[in-house]
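User: I'm writing a tutorial on reading structure tokens. Could you give me a worked example: one chain, its sequence, then its tokens, then a sentence or two explaining what the tokens reveal?
Assistant: Sure. Here is the example chain.
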Amino acid sequence: MSSKLSPLKQLAELEAAYEKASQVEGLELNSQQRQQILRLASDLPALWHSVTTTAAERKEMLGLLVKQVALSPVESPTRQTRIAILWHTGATTEFLVKRPTTKEKLQTPTQIIEAVRELAPGRTDAEIADQLNQRGLLSAKQRPFTKDSVNWIRWKFKISKPNSSNPKGIRADGSYSTKALAEKLGVSIHSIHYWRQKGVIQGHQEKPSGAWWYPVTPSVLKTLRETIRRVPVNPDYPNLSQSWREKKGLSSQVIHGRPSPFLMYYLVGVKPV
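And here are its predicted structure tokens:
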């Protein structure tokens, strides 16, 4: 158990001593003991809100302070719940809270949105999920966070992707999105996908069916630009060799020995000039 709990244990021992002492007529705590209890009590809010305090430790703190909780529904004038708390000291606290609708229960709390926004820079979705779980936070469905649930929250609330400060699809590590790389080379996105499938360029996804990212270095750019130069872009489209057309799958898509401009753009991705 964390050393943070040692004050809690002291508080519990003092409360137990006080309860036992109060049963003996004329026996009271001395001023030093009272000051110690007050000092420990003033430290509880800071301890509760500390990022190093785990959910299990907060639960133990509640057990030291709260003896019983009673909940009762209130239907009028609005749907609410009356909460009555009986503390170990014998004092009681009572208050009303609004009962959320089913839709409201499934909404992502503002606390979670802000936490994801805070943790996003420099972290992957999996790392963000791990941090949220360490803080004892749960999703709207009261489940631990996963990489996919964090990804959905970032998409829903337009929180920038981890490791990316460039909205144009260029990451700090030099990786390009499919669209950004296509724009840089002046080709269509079909070219980028085609080259990836043929092994001309390497790409990766953060999750299945996610966006593709491509590490772009000077040597990669040189290879891609050489690939582009080998593709005819003349609007007259001179006759291509039979082997080249067969390699590109265009042997049956020719008009008077010339490839269709639409097919050249779709399959190869180079725009005619």
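What the tokens reveal: The radius of gyration is 32 Å. Strands lie at 66-74, 80-87, 92-98, 175-177, 204-205, 212-215, 254-255, 258-259.
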